[in-house]
Automatic annotation (TrEMBL):
Pathway: Carbohydrate degradation; pentose phosphate pathway; D-ribulose 5-phosphate from D-glucose 6-phosphate (oxidative stage): step 1/3. It comes from Ruegeria conchae. It comes from the Bacteria. Residues 14-187 form the Glucose-6-phosphate dehydrogenase NAD-binding domain. Keywords: Carbohydrate metabolism, Glucose metabolism, NADP, Oxidoreductase. Residues 189-480 form the Glucose-6-phosphate dehydrogenase C-terminal domain. This is Glucose-6-phosphate 1-dehydrogenase. NADP(+) binds at R51, K148. The keyword Membrane does not apply. One of its GO terms (molecular function) is glucose-6-phosphate dehydrogenase activity.
Length: 484
């Protein structure tokens, strides 16, 4: 099975912040891989625009180096690299002054799709939108792509939405949550809505609870300043875990179209109850054999920023009333693993008696690494005299099932950048979704501040603070393991 490549029309893509980390590590390599796949035509132009006074040649050198580093396999083909570099341009430009805007304007073609990627710090999002409009660079075929973080709280997200809305239609604004670009996250929708098997059971009558885990082994090195202001709640929970929660809990949209999907996601967020303080655990990595503690890393021995959060959420609607959702995410944990566990209820009656034990089905959807699904089913334990039961996994790795040519699926940025060019907003967050997510998050953070909450320390390389286990234990449940 070979994935299909649907070519797009020529476009101009301006990357504001083109010399930055995100542009060079993710966006440019993603564009290169799509170029190698033959998805975009030769006439396309990628224009880096940033503060550095570089020539086009020196910018191309930077791009060539990042291809070597971040697209090592394909960058071994000199013809592909040279072909790609010919499409690369550069304009020194300042988002906060008039410098560079006239040369940028001259470079752009009038008759094609035009995308402006805001790969700069969030304080520049508003000024960029204003200058694009002031210099008449926004045609009806123009899209803007806005990176995370989208606001720091509800008020700032509203203000940013209002600024962008004064210059662009909602249909032109692409707010990135790169989690939505991951092949396996889209697979969540395919598994749920492409199969007859799961959906009839997908409600509180049959599902005991759902666990969503996004565990990271990395710390916050290189992002200390940003992270100290954000913490795990803002950095991960408000966006990535919230998006996973929406996809797992939403009603089936009538079709796979941007507003149909986003309407359903929004309903989930709006149906979330406020989280009770005793249903949240905050943690902070404290060091140990596997590295330094958070406070040492940020150079603030009184920091109360959380690098871990676990919580129990409730969705008050017909489908989910009574089924809790347990979400957890953290840094410096034992393994890198993103997984959703749908834990079904016990069978209503056991015909095998007490000695057979209690058994329940569980569906694990692994998003990374080793993407796939495992269904835990109960069978008879072989060889015993009586009828004893045992749980066994029905395990499917997508890579194995789909064959070797699909071992290297497009990465999230490849998918998302091409969706921008195609004008498909399904995998991008709408303004009202982002605001609703902040409206749920803000009171949690305000509660911590009001109570002077201090996160619980946990050892680097562990599964997180012990209190997160208690959160489950109190409900007679337990977390599934964090397995790589
Ligand atoms: P960076 O500091 O590495 O790069 C910033 C870029 O902005 C540089 O190219 C710089 O020249 C340019 N710039 C700064 N001031 C400017 C001005 N006044 N006018 C024009 N250009 C200016 O930052 P980054 O890590 O690439 O992050 C960019 C954005 O992406 C941020 O909003 C960040 O939160 C977001 N983001 C980054 C990552 C990541 O992995 N780096 C991941 C997710 C989101």
């Amino acid at each position: 099975m070979v994935s299909r490549v649907i070519p797009v029309d020529p476009f101009d893509l301006v990357i504001f912040g083109g010399t930055g980390d995100l542009a060079q590590r993710k966006i440019v390599p993603a564009l290169f891989r799509r170029y190698c796949a033959g998805q975009w035509p030769e006439a396309t132009r990628i224009i880096g625009a940033a503060r550095g006074a570089l020539t086009v040649e020196s910018f191309r050198d930077i791009v060539a180096e990042s291809l070597r580093q971040y697209a090592p396999k394909r960058s071994k083909d000199p013809e592909a690299v040279n072909g790609f570099l010919q499409r690369i341009n550069y304009v020194p430009l300042d988002a906060l002054s008039e410098d560079g805007w006239a040369p940028l304007s001259e470079l752009l073609s009038t008759d094609r799709i035009r995308a402006f990627y805001f790969s700069v710090g969030p304080r520049l999002f508003g000024p960029l939108a204003e200058r694009i409009r002031a210099h008449n660079l926004a045609t009806p075929q123009t899209r803007i792509v806005v990176e995370k973080p989208f606001g720091h709280d509800l008020e700032s997200a509203r203000a940013l939405n209002a600024t962008l809305a004064s210059h662009f239609d909602e249909g032109q604004i692409y707010r990135i949550d790169h989690y939505l670009g991951k092949e396996t996250v889209q697979n969540l929708m395919a598994v749920r809505f492409g199969n007859m098997l799961f959906e009839p059971l997908w409600n509180s009558q049959y599902v005991d609870h759902i666990q969503i885990t996004v565990a990271e082994t990395v710390g916050i090195d290189g992002r200390e300043e940003y992270y100290e202001r954000a913490g795990a709640m803002r950095d991960m929970m408000q966006n990535h875990l919230m998006q996973l929660l929406c996809l797992i809990a939403m009603e089936p949209p009538a079709k796979f179209d941007p507003d149909a999907v986003r309407d359903e996601k929004l309903k989930v967020i709006r149906a979330l109850d406020p989280v009770e303080p005793h249903h949240i655990v905050r943690g902070q990595f404290a060091g140990g054999k596997q590295g330094r503690g958070y406070r040492e890393v940020v150079g603030n021995n009184r920091s109360t920023t959380e690098s871990y959060v676990a919580l129990r959420a409730h969705i008050s609607n017909w489908r989910w009333a009574g089924t809790p959702f347990y979400l957890r995410t953290g840094k410096e944990l034992v393994a890198r693993s993103s997984v959703i566990n749908v834990m079904f209820k016990d069978a209503p009656h056991s015909i095998f008696g007490e000695e057979a034990g209690r058994h329940a089905n569980a569906l694990s959807i692994r998003l990374q690494p080793n993407e796939g699904i495992t269904l835990k089913v109960t069978i008879k334990e072989p060889g015993q005299g009586g009828m004893r039961l045992v749980d066994v996994p029905l395990d499917m790795s997508f890579a194995e099932a789909l064959g070797p040519e699909n071992q290297d699926p497009p990465d999230a940025y490849e998918r998302l950048v091409m969706d921008v060019i195609r004008g498909n907003q399904t995998l991008f967050m709408r303004g009202d979704e982002v605001e609703a997510a902040w409206a749920w998050t803000d009171p949690i953070i305000a509660g911590w501040q009001a109570r002077g909450d201090v996160p619980k320390p946990y050892e680097n390389g562990s599964t997180g603070p012990g209190d997160a286990e208690l959160l489950m234990k109190r409900d007679h449940r337990r977390w599934q393991g964090i397995n790589p």
